[in-house]
Specification:
Length: 429
């Protein structure tokens, strides 16, 4: 039976969920950097060529912080259950059916690609995760051919001279834990018109050149380590870099990529080193981080002794009561998110998505029930407290992060090996 997309991707829930997701992301993520979001047009047809570190966190970041409504190509097996199918359709997601997932009927994807073409004719933005799967690595994987097929078929069948492909890269500190940091970079557009003449004479050559250009564009805006055996070394060097560019906890969203530029330079430098240079550097970093671990210290605290100042301690004392109230009242939501994640998630790439989703949906229901209970009491103080509880829950996370900074900085300031550690660190840099 032929697969039909006639009623798919209605987007009915998309605008409402996008508004709610703003708060969700600001609570779940500690820091969000957005660069060049105006690079995604609102009045031109575009294919967004995105990397895919996590399962559902990436689509949330793209959908919330980019201007036009996006249509997301998503793996087809998620759409097999009616509930999830309706949910995915309501937030502008549509399926792609891959042979490795057990699908063999080509007509399904023929209609999927036609759906993409129609959206491009309507001057919409279609997001495609061009690596073909999600992965938490500092690496851009080879680009799959689907995006080239859609782009060239659209260009051949319809006059869309302004059709373009736009690289989009999400980069996380960790990718599998709450209160993470993310940088969303939008790259330079790749106009399809530049490949049209070559495609008419040699389709394979034009396709390969386009895929290579997309990969190059993504590597410019993503952290990329050529050799997987260098991943641990890269993480250590990035840790040193991040300590020197430690993010302020407020504001949560910043519109620049200065920190990413520094991290990208670290990755590019590692890729340029010889094997002998890497081995020598790895020996130094391993010794330094082992000494840190043995002393129970953190690199960022070592670099920022000002975090452990006494005035900050006075602020902690004054904010302890709101912290305690927020901690006690938000703990059921935190416990539920951890429990569901631990019981259901098998792959790292899904951890942050499940914790964020369960925490957000469970939190909305939980705080709504508390608010209803306060209304039944008809006590204005209880009602005011119930209304303030979500903000107190966020304050609890902010308070705890500042407290950890203060405590670890105090440890680093008083540690007898502090000068030796700074000397070792200087030799690495």
């Amino acid at each position: 039976m032929k697969f039909s997309l006639r009623h798919q991707s209605t987007g009915k829930v998309y605008p409402y969920l996008a508004s709610s997701a703003h708060l969700m992301l600001r609570a779940f993520l500690r820091k969000i950097y957005i660069y060049n979001r105006q690079g995604v047009p609102t009045d031109k047809p575009a294919l967004l060529a995105a990397n895919h570190p996590t399962a559902f966190l990436d689509p949330s970041v793209l959908g919330v912080f980019l201007y036009p409504p996006l249509y997301y190509m998503t793996r087809g097996d998620i759409f097999e259950k009616p509930f999830f199918r309706k949910l995915m359709e309501s937030i502008n997601m549509f399926p792609v059916f891959r042979m490795r997932d057990g699908y063999s009927s080509r007509d399904r994807n023929d209609e999927v690609f036609e759906f993409c073409r129609q959206k491009l004719i309507q001057r919409r933005v279609v997001a495609i995760y061009v690596e073909g799967e999600h992965h938490l690595e500092y690496r851009v994987r080879p680009i799959q051919k689907g995006i080239a097929r859609i782009a060239f078929d659209t260009l051949e069948r319809h006059e869309l001279p302004d059709l373009q492909i736009i690289p989009a890269g999400c980069n996380y500190l960790y990718g599998d834990r709450p209160r993470d940091e993310v940088t969303l970079n939008i790259g330079e557009p790749i106009p399809l018109s530049a490949y049209r003449e070559e495609y008419q004479h040699n389709q394979a050559a034009a396709t390969n050149r386009l895929l290579a250009d997309i990969e190059t564009g993504l590597k410019k805006i993503c952290l990329h380590i050529d050799d997987p055996s260098d991943d641990d070394l890269a993480l250590q060097m990035l840790t040193l870099c991040r300590s020197e560019t430690a993010a302020s906890l407020i504001p949560i969203v910043e519109y620049h990529n200065r920190r990413f530029v520094a991290e990208k330079a670290v990755c590019d430098r590692i890729n340029m080193l010889s094997q002998e240079e890497k081995a020598a550097l790895r020996q130094k970093t391993d010794s330094y981080f082992k000494m840190l671990q043995d002393g129970g210290l953190h690199d960022d605290a070592l670099m920022h002794p000002e975090w452990g100042s006494l005035p900050r301690l006075a602020l902690f004392l004054s904010g302890f009561l709101p912290f305690l109230i927020g901690f006690l009242t938000s703990y059921p939501v935190i416990w539920l998110a951890k429990y569901v994640t631990r019981k259901t998630v098998k792959k790292r790439e899904f951890v942050s998505s499940v914790r964020m989703g369960v925490g957000h949906l469970g939190g909305m229901l939980y705080y709504f029930l508390l608010f209803l209970g306060s209304l039944l009491s008809w006590n204005p103080w209880w009602i005011a407290l119930a209304l303030a509880l979500p903000a107190l829950g966020w304050f609890t996370m902010f308070y705890r992060e500042n407290w950890v900074r203060w405590y670890t900085a105090q440890q680093a300031r008083r540690h007898p090996a502090r000068e030796r550690l700074l000397e070792m660190r200087g030799l690495i840099k």
